[in-house]
Design brief:
The protein is mostly helical. The chain has 31 helices and eight strands. The longest helix has 35 residues. The protein binds guanosine-5'-diphosphate and magnesium ion. Guanosine-5'-diphosphate (GDP) binds next to helix 1 and helix 4.
Length: 670
């Protein structure tokens, strides 16, 4: 049996999904985190499949992800729906519930966040509310795992008995008349579509284009429908969409009147408002954001993550040394020895040692996200983004882009307009993804050891600034027009839950480890082979006569004006396209360092500090890894767009890095 989980964004769907299925999906305290449906079996109920759908406010879809949800409901027809409702915001959340009642699927309301309702001193009479609405309601707290078992039991009952919402007449007066007359008119056409009658009639009154095209009404039918709707609009003095919305909110207000007791603004809300007075202040908002990020980088690089990483690389060196001696003792073939020690251990080890840094960074970022602060940043950024023709909503994908571009590009599905969406896809890769962190960390350790947090802030902010400039360019050329208004609601500030922070860190660590032992592992072997043999497959003593050096030398001249026109950096940039971490592993393999921890000092001999700055700039901005390119292609809908986007991005990277190097030379010479 299939059970769908449906509710407004940020109402706790994913938290409940994780609780019921025992899986570890990403939970975030801002709308727009889940963009694809996820499935899982309910614990202890093997034959029950739960489907987590993207959040929606209503069944009139505006964005790509909302279409996913509505289609699932109408086409796949789940056996039952768990409608999760945020009890702290009950009236607005019930709007969707009412539409589910119109569809007539068996539905159970999971009244979530009851812990907060209690903490606020509010109360909800669940039985009365259930009677008023004519559907079963189970109070729960997904985060605290309260009431979840009862919810599952009730859902199973509802699904087995196909218990549909009691046929309360939701509408009165004019709307009622219109809905019923139209239901009559479209009776025949309805059969072919398989849509529920009540739902379809309401959608026709509302003027929903998708439903209308499915029904395919004749000219004369359309004429009659138009007449009925015009009469209703005239009698009510509002337009068709507003008429239905008013009707639904009236019904909700009546249902809640004697069941929900509230003490004005909740404590949480008041606290959030006070905090927001400072954090989203017109002048302070952006400086505070920068200060927070600086603090995060400082803690990550100077206090916690980097020292742990250094410790780990000492450990890796020790293991490598052990293996080295063991292999020497067995007297194994020279080439195999070199492959294992200089290729695999150096390559994988150089990347692996950054695991603690990355996990630490994501520890802080997930706290910021889960507390609700990141949603405020989107709000603060709205004004800035509006200048480049985007809305604050686009900040969410960009934010996810600091982790990884692939989910970030997918997250653009939450954007309502095609224009905003395409533009955001083009800008997201400029947000520095976490795979580039090992590169930054290696180079700052080599060249700017005492200024690490500053360099990191410059790089991250630099990516954003270039993104903004690029956005301005796009706005005045390809993407004229205006962004949609900003309508993201700000969630209440919440204490980040240890569980979701841990899930987040674990996800990152897992991704990173998997990459290190798959892509980086293979890339290190390939690089070692290409570097150890020449084109006649003879083993070379001197790496500069290898096949790889040949390829590197071929592309190196492109980077001459940027200050690093040698074959080693050129090759590293090339392998970086498989995964950005590979830049570091390639440098480690190619420079023949004997220990992973010695890489920075070897690099200091290969690059000048200015060339290093230019190299960092280029790696920050040039095209993302192949996985991200594939995502861009999929979401933009064509290889030619993706190729153009990547070419443009590489050009931008080249120009900016060139500026850094050439202008730098004017000031410090050399
Ligand atoms: P979704 O967008 O509907 O999938 O919502 P999420 O599952 O991502 O949750 C949104 C936010 O609400 C997260 O910060 C959760 O930690 C929080 N949350 C979810 N359920 C509860 C609950 O029962 N009580 C409280 N206090 N917070 C909750
Ligand atoms: Mg979710």
């Amino acid at each position: 049996m299939i059970i769908a989980l449906l509710g407004n964004p940020n109402s706790g769907k994913t938290t409940l999904f994780n609780q019921l299925t025992g899986s570890k999906q990403h939970v975030g305290n801002f709308p727009g985190v889940t963009v694809e449906k996820k499935e899982g079996a309910i614990r202890g109920q093997r034959n029950l499949t739960l489907v987590d759908l993207p959040g929606i406010y209503s069944l009139s879809p505006y964005t790509a992800e909302e279409v996913v949800t509505r289609d699932f409901l109408l086409v796949e027809k789940p056996e039952a729906v768990i409608n999760i409702v945020d009890a702290t915001n009950i009236e607005r959340n019930l709007y969707l519930t009412l539409q589910l009642m119109e569809v007539g699927v068996p539905v159970v309301v999971a009244l979530n966040m009851m812990d907060e309702v209690r903490a606020n001193g509010d109360s909800i009479d669940v039985q009365k509310l259930s009677r008023n609405l004519g559907i079963p309601i189970v109070p729960i707290s997904a985060a605290k795992n309260e009431g979840c078992d009862e919810l599952v039991q009730r859902t199973i009952e509802v699904a087995h008995q196909k218990e549909r919402p009691r046929g309360l007449d939701l509408c009165q007066g004019e709307v009622h008349r219109a809905v019923h007359s139209i239901a009559h008119i479209i009776e025949e056409e309805l059969k072919a579509t398989g849509l529920p009658a009540r739902y379809a009639a309401t959608k026709v009154v509302e003027g929903d284009p998708i439903t209308l095209s499915k029904l395919n009404l004749s000219e004369s039918q359309q004429g009659i429908v138009q007449k009925i709707v015009t009469e209703m609009e005239h009698n009510l003095g509002t337009d068709r969409e507003a008429a239905l919305a008013d009707m639904r909110y009236d019904f909700i207000a009546k249902a809640c009147k004697d069941a929900v007791k509230k003490n004005g603004n909740s404590r949480e809300m008041q606290r959030s408002i006070r905090i927001d007075n400072v954090l989203t202040n017109k002048y302070l908002g952006i400086p505070i954001f920068l200060a927070v990020m600086l603090l995060v980088f400082y803690l990550t690089f100077n206090v916690i993550g980097q020292p742990l990483s250094d410790l780990l690389s000492t450990g890796i060196d020790w293991v490598t040394g052990l293996l080295d001696r063991a292999l020497t003792n067995t007297g194994i073939n020279e080439a195999v020895h070199s492959l294992l020690v200089d290729g695999v251990c150096m390559g994988v080890g150089s990347v692996l040692s950054f695991l603690p840094t990355i996990v630490t960074l994501f520890f802080f970022l997930s706290i910021l996200e889960d507390s609700g602060y990141m949603a405020r940043v989107a709000f603060v950024m709205d004004k800035l983004l509006r200048k480049i023709g985007l809305s604050g909503r686009s900040f969410v994908p960009m934010l996810i882009g600091f982790g990884c571009s692939v989910p970030a590009i997918m997250a653009t599905r939450t954007l309502a307009s095609q224009r905003d969406r395409r533009m955001t896809i083009l800008l997201t890769p400029f947000m520095s993804c976490s795979a580039k962190l090992p590169i930054y960390a290696t180079f700052t350790a080599a060249f700017f050891p005492d200024k690490a947090p500053l360099v990191l802030i410059l790089l991250y902010a630099g990516g954003m600034v270039v993104g903004i400039l690029y956005g301005l360019l796009l706005k005045s050329t390809l993407f004229r027009g205006n962004p949609v208004p900003f309508v993201m609601e700000l969630p209440a500030y919440r204490m980040p839950s240890a569980k979701s922070v841990l899930i987040h860190m674990w996800e990152k660590a897992k991704d990173f480890l998997v990459k290190a032992f798959t892509i980086i592992f293979v890339a290190s072997i390939v690089i070692w082979v290409l570097q150890s043999f020449d084109s006649r497959l003879m083993m070379v003593e001197d790496g500069s006569r290898s096949m790889l050096a040949g390829i590197g030398r071929f592309i190196a001249p492109i980077f001459k004006p940027l200050g690093f026109g040698e074959w080693i950096p050129a090759t590293a940039l090339l392998t970086g396209l498989s995964a950005k971490e590979a830049v570091v592993s390639t440098l480690a393999v190619l420079t023949n360092v004997s220990d992973v921890s010695l890489l920075p000092s070897v690099l200091a001999d290969t690059f000048t500090p200015l060339a290093a700055a230019s190299f960092l700039t280029f790696t920050l901005l040039y095209m993302p890894c192949f996985a991200a390119v594939a995502a861009v292609k999929r979401e933009l809908g064509g290889a030619k767009y993706a190729v153009a986007a990547m070419a443009a991005q590489c050009a931008v990277a080249w120009i900016v890095a060139c500026l850094v190097y050439q202008i730098g030379r004017l000031f410090i010479g050399g």
